[in-house]
Amino acid sequence: MDEVEARTEGRVTFERVYGGTLGTLFAQAENITGRVFDVGQTSYVYTPGLYPLGTVTTLPAIEADSHVWARATHALMDDPRLQAEYTAVNQKYLFVWALEPMEMMCHQEVHSLDDLVGLRIRVHGGSALAGDKLGWTGVTVTWEELPVAAAEHIIDCGCFPPPITGRDAGLHTIFKYYLHPFPIYQFHFATTINLEAWNEIPADLQQIMLEVGDDGVEYGLSYIDAKLEEGYQDFEEVGVITIDWPAEEWEKFVEQAGEPVWEDWVAEQEAAGRPGREILDAFQALLAEYR
User: Fold this and answer.
1) Residue 49 lies inside a defined structural domain of this protein
2) pLDDT category, 22, cuts 50, 70, 90?
């Protein structure tokens, strides 16, 4: 927002409303569609039914590197079929903001996929799909409820982005063990603008906003890079124990709960008349391009 205001020399300005004052993340997409506010963040994870083809980007084990993932996800939006999903809900996509990968923290030691069976695990998005394949006991807990659910041991483990986002929520002071590297899936945030609001903006200013969006992807990745080591240090200071997730367990995860889920996703999309295979292939080609 600061950058758009600067580059447009104040011809586009924003009123900033913080911290879910106008609705939770679940309601964000609906609020942008109905123009409760003009600009906000939506997520394929929280409202997958609105953007079914876009959920290809949140499949488990689709990409371990957040940098590769973010650039490929942003580039995928050049596909008119992905853009159409936003148009259908009265939105214009601007840019994607990556988090660190969704990994896992637990109250007890876990060293294998078998150790996770029988534990109550907070899942959503790609981790929920993977958990179904692996026999996990998945528990639905919203982000706002997660610290209490963890502190009260309603859940044994949680899938979320630990070293930055989870640290900022204080979850490193609740869970003792951090499973790493275990990039279960990549969480999706897209900054969008209400389509009517977008159409009110002159074309030259729209172009500036799109350019800022391109830069915003890289800004977000730079932010992650700057904060990761800080997060790891904070983990160490409070006594979090990092469990080195075995490479063979990661390979087993991909084999059992990655690629099979991708094929399920293709079948589901094509059963609904959508080009699932084409979109999966296109996204994988972009991922390969940015690696």
Assistant:
1) yes
2) confident
